[in-house]
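User: Working on a comparison across species. This one is Cupin from Clostridium neonatale. Can you predict its structure so I can line it up against the others?
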Amino acid sequence: MCKNKIDAKYFIDKLNLKPHIEGGYFNECLSSEDNYNDNQKLWTSIYFLLEQGDVSRLHILEEDELWYYHAGNSLNIYMISPEGKLTVSKLGLNIDNGETPQVLVPKGYIFGSIMEEEGFCLVGNMVAPGFIYDHFKIVNQKELLSRYPEHKETILKLTKSE
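Assistant: Here's the predicted structure for Cupin from Clostridium neonatale:
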C-alpha cells in the first residue's frame, strides 16, 4: 500500500499512460535493443495501472509475462492453466498476507486481473520474447464458459458479454 497520498492520476499523467485495449492504462516504456527474431524484440516492458473497479480482461499470450509491483494497493491476477486449473496470485508487498512483489504468468495461460480494493495499483509487465499484438488474444466469454463452467464466477467478472 502506498504510504503517501499520490493517486492514480499522478502516475497516469507523469508516466504518460494511455487507455489499454484490455482495460486500465499503460505505456510501453522499455524494449530490448536486441531482436529475438525478425519481428520481435528479445523483451519488452510496460507500465500498467488499474484503478478500483478496473478489469484487465481475460486474455492469452504466446510468451511468458512477468508482473512487478510498483505502487498502490494489491492486485489479484487470475490465471487458468492450459489444463483448466484456476489460480489467483496477489501482487503486492504484504508478504504476511500472501502477497508477492512479482508474479509469472506462463505462456499459454488465460489470465486477467482486477483491482478489488480502493485506490489503484501500478505495476510493470515484462514480456519475453517481446510483446507483439499478433500473439495477444482477448478470449471470448461464451467459449470460456463452455470450456470451464467450474470457473463461471471468475470468467463473468473478467470478461465482457458478447
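For your comparison, note: Residues 8-157 form a domain with the Jelly Rolls fold (CATH 2.60.120.10).

User: Helpful, thanks.
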